Amino acid sequence: MKALNVGYNNTVSLDKIVAVINADSKPARRLKERAEREARLIDATSGRKTRSCLITSSNHLVLSALNTQTISQRINE
């Protein structure tokens, strides 16, 4: 199992990531609200501004304070 650092010593299994999206979009905000209602939201921002959302194969939504470009670079390493 390979882990991806999503910021501030928080990691997500690389095999479980389905998509990385920008948190500023309207659809991302709706996904966040729905995941929060359904207890599927994981906040890995450590109190900072949410910049990206990672959608996992288990249908969880992981919030990260890193930009989508930074996460994409880390995935491709």
Structure, explained:
- With 77 residues, the protein is α+β, with helices and mostly antiparallel strands.
- The protein starts with a strand and ends with a helix.
- The strands form two sheets. Strands 3-5-6-4 form a four-stranded mixed beta sheet, sandwiched between helices.
- It has one domain (3-76).
- The protein has helices spanning 26-37, 68-76; strands spanning 3-7, 10-13, 17-22, 41-43, 52-56, 61-64.
- The model has no long low-confidence stretch (mean pLDDT 96).
- 27% of the residues lie in helices and 35% in strands.
- The protein is built from two helices and six strands.
- The longest helix has 12 residues, at 26-37.
Number-wise, the strands total 6
Ranges where pLDDT stays below 50 over 5 or more residues in a row are none
Helix content class: 25-40%
Overall geometry: globular
What is the ordering of alpha helices and beta strands? EEEHEEEH
Compute the separation of the termini in Å: 15 Å
Biggest sheet, spatial arrangement of strands: 3-5-6-4
Query: What structural class do you assign from the helix and strand content?
Result: alpha+beta
Report Rg: 11 Å
Tally the helices. Answer: 2
Overall number of structural domains: 1
Mean pLDDT: 96
As a percent range, the share of strand residues is: 35-45%
Major beta sheet summary: 4 strands, mixed
